[in-house]
Amino acid sequence: MNELNKTEVLELINKKINRLKRKIDSYKELTKPISPDNAIGRISRMDAINNKSVAEAGLREAQKELSGLEYMSANIDKDDFGICKKCNKKIPIRRLLLVPQSPYCVNCSS
User: Fold this and answer.
1) Hey, which end of the chain has fewer CB within 10 Å, N or C?
2) How far, in Å, are 30, 49, 57, 98 from residue 36 at the CA level?
3) Domain boundaries, the chain
4) First-to-last C-alpha distance (Å) of the chain
5) d(Cα 81, Cα 13) in Å, to the nearest integer?
């Protein structure tokens, strides 16, 4: 991968990392425990618990994506960056721009 492409991918990764960190902060706020002494009705409490579960799932996904992005960012200067970890073929630049946290090509990712 040439330097121009690496720079473009790194900029995209950094933007996504910053966006994900903000998203994770908001998910953490949404996943705080629901106080049982809070004066809300039974239905409202069940709805709040359901919303908390959805936010927790979103938080896990965002943390997983952040971990992948940080890994790729740390390894962007290595010789094997942009090479699929399974088949050792070059990952197309469009794939890297769309899903920069994935170390696999489209064929190996599924």
Assistant:
1) C
2) 16, 11, 22, 43
3) 3-109
4) 23
5) 13
